[in-house]
């Protein structure tokens, strides 16, 4: 066809790091995938049973359900999260079930962001916030987390990465429509403190801005740190959309069930987008998530709770990976939450600055491609998670996912030890 085919809203957003790096890794034999964020072990037994029950039980679960969510799921989400957010949540007005947290984010951007609206994004950020802002016609405004000084020899921690309050305040203008928060943050693993959230909350209130908060890793917090939902702070429920994911909550990323919680004044616009796009999400997956939450509600806070056991397991995975990376001279930034860590590769950058790749390609991207091909390990370059003008400040970090089976972590050890032997023959 001679006509321009693609809609202009797609200009400049055709790249996806997951598609690119998963493809690269699949082209090599024997690459271990620490790039994409998913567990490579079985979900908890109660979730598998809930799914089996949904598939083999009531035949009506094979049919459409209510457009905005399967009623037992919206009901349990309302009662479960109502306690954390300090709100009486109405399952019909304050809950929307979507295709994963991705679907929740997309619905929120489409519903609220207009042509020319500014959207503040904290970087490094989960990859899709920028293209979703652009697709809605908005203008992303970036503010970077910066590493505060640490004692020499001390390991870096994600809590040392902070927003500068003056710089943050300067990003809010009369055109600012939304602030995107992600805590625990992907890729850094930072868990925002109450003081940091209070600062964001007061700026959102002062400038009449909506807060879209992506809390998909809310149960995955380590070292006694505490996740706080910004919607629970005074005056924030009215202007906040809180997003979650069953994929991350119950280790079932393939089910693609997500949700948004918020006040009816905002949610009614998300429902308009949903009813004119997705319309319905898979009923059986929703039923399985509902049953899993019902089980968790009974066990909540007890040693038998998955929300207690799972973070303990992955904290051990995190510590295993930190030691492995340190043993080859890499310098991981210790995360307080999520299932990712970033690691500093400056020493490699100094020793082998001329890796193959285009001259203007950020170093971390060239490093990851080299590592996939030569070392059989896949990670994601951190420059992927920042705006183009800021890539040069982040191109000496790569992100690993540590929510992996012990055998996968041991496979990493073997590859790293071989690498170490090559470095020090
Ligand atoms: N937000 C963040 C921060 C993520 O890491 C992910 C990746 N899973 C998502 C949203 C999307 O979640 P889902 O798989 O439920 O669509
Ligand atoms: N949350 C996943 C990650 O950060 C996303 C992977 C995906 O969308 N395929 O790795």
Summarize the structure.
Helix 4 runs parallel beside helix 5 (129-135). Helix content is 40%, strand content 15%. The chain is globular.
Could you tell me how far the N terminus lies from the C terminus, measured between alpha carbons in angstroms?
59 Å
Rg (CA only) = 22 Å
- How would you spell out the order of helices and strands? HEHHEHEHEEEHEHEEHEHHHEEHHEEHEH
Strand order, sheet with most strands: 2-10-9-8-7-3-4
Beta strand %: 5-15%
The residue-averaged pLDDT reads 95
Helix count equals: 15
The parts where pLDDT drops under 50 for at least 5 residues are none
Give the class from helix and strand content and strand pairing.
alpha/beta
Tell me about the biggest sheet?
A: 7 strands, mixed
Query: How many extended strands?
Result: 15
What does this structure look like?
The longest helix has 22 residues, at 306-327. The N and C termini lie far apart (59 Å). α4 (100-112) packs parallel to α5. With 425 residues, the protein is α/β, with parallel strands linked by helices. The chain has helices at residues 17-26, 45-56, 71-85, 100-112, 129-135, 165-170, 194-206, 246-249, 264-275, 283-299, 306-327, 346-351, 363-375, 391-394, 406-423; strands at 32-33, 95-99, 118-123, 139-144, 146-147, 161-162, 176-182, 210-214, 240-245, 257-261, 331-333, 340-344, 377-378, 380-381, 397-401. The chain has a 7-stranded mixed beta sheet with strand order 2-10-9-8-7-3-4, with helices on both faces. Strands 11-12-15-14 form a 4-stranded antiparallel beta sheet, covered by helices on one side. A two-stranded parallel sheet has the order 1-13. It contains 15 helices and 15 strands. The mean pLDDT is 95. Bound molecules: 4'-deoxy-4'-aminopyridoxal-5'-phosphate and glutamine.
């Amino acid at each position: 066809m001679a006509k321009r085919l693609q809609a202009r809203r797609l200009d400049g957003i055709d790249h996806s790091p997951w598609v690119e790096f998963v493809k690269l890794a699949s082209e090599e034999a024997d690459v271990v995938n620490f790039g994409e964020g998913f567990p490579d072990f079985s979900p908890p037994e109660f979730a598998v049973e809930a799914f089996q029950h949904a598939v083999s039980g009531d035949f009506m679960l094979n049919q459409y359900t209510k457009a905005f969510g399967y009623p037992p799921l919206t009901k349990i989400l309302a009662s479960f999260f109502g306690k954390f957010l300090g709100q009486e949540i109405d399952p019909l007005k304050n809950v929307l079930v979507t295709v994963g947290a991705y679907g929740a984010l997309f619905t929120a951007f489409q519903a609220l962001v207009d042509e020319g609206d500014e959207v503040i994004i904290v970087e490094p950020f989960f990859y899709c916030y920028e293209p979703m802002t652009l697709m809605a016609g908005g203008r992303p405004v970036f503010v970077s987390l910066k590493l505060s000084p640490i004692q020499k020899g001390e390991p870096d921690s994600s809590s040392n990465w902070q927003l500068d309050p003056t710089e943050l305040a300067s990003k809010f203008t009369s055109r600012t429509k939304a602030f995107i928060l992600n805590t625990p943050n992907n890729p850094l693993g930072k868990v925002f403190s109450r003081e940091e959230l209070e600062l964001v909350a007061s700026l959102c209130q002062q400038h009449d801005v909506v807060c879209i908060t992506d809390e998909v890793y809310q149960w995955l917090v380590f070292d006694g740190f505490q996740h706080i939902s910004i919607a629970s702070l005074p005056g924030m429920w009215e202007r906040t959309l809180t997003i979650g994911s069953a994929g991350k909550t119950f280790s079932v990323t393939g089910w693609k069930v997500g949700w948004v919680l918020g006040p009816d004044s905002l949610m009614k616009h998300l429902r308009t987008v949903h009813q004119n796009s997705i319309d319905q999400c898979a009923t059986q997956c929703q039923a399985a998530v509902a049953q899993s939450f019902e089980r968790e509600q009974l066990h909540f806070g007890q040693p038998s709770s998955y929300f207690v056991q799972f973070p303990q397991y992955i904290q051990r995975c995190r510590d295993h990976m930190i030691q492995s990376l340190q043993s080859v001279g890499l310098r991981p930034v210790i995360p307080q939450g999520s299932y990712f860590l970033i690691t500093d590769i400056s020493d490699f950058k100094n020793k082998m600055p001329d890796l193959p790749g285009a001259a203007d390609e950020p170093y971390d991207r060239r490093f990851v491609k080299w590592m996939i091909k030569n070392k059989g390990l896949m990670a994601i370059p951190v420059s992927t998670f920042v705006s183009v003008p800021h890539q040069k400040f982040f191109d000496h970090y790569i992100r690993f996912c540590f929510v992996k089976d012990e055998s996968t972590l041991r496979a990493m050890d073997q590859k790293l030890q071989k690498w170490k032997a090559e470095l020090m023959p």
